[in-house]
Inverse folding.
């Protein structure tokens, strides 16, 4: 999903509220971050068939160090930028009654 300018601003505001003021890159220690204008997703690893279409996923925003290329991923649903995992998928991992 492409992030609008307003959504990118939300990410910056979240980082300003929650990250330490001197939150440098853990690799190169520079404080030179760029927010990518798209979300990405990580998909749950499922044993067995790779065609299991009911796997859980997590939407992510990539924040990249402009000096060394290190990437930090932030949960886009937690930031309010994407819908959380569908309830139907989440419910499948609950124990049966």
């Amino acid at each position: 999903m492409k992030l609008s300018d307003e959504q990118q601003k939300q990410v910056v505001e979240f980082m300003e509220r929650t990250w330490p003021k001197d939150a440098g890159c853990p690799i190169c220690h520079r404080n030179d971050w760029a927010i990518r204008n798209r979300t990405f997703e990580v998909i749950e690893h499922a044993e067995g068939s790779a065609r299991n279409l009911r796997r859980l996923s997590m939407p992510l925003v990539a924040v990249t160090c402009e000096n060394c290329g290190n990437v930090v991923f932030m949960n886009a649903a937690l930031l309010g930028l994407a819908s959380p995992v569908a309830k139907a998928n989440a419910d499948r991992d609950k124990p049966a009654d």
Summary: Residues 5-18 form the longest helix (14 residues). Residues 86-93 have pLDDT under 50 and may be disordered.
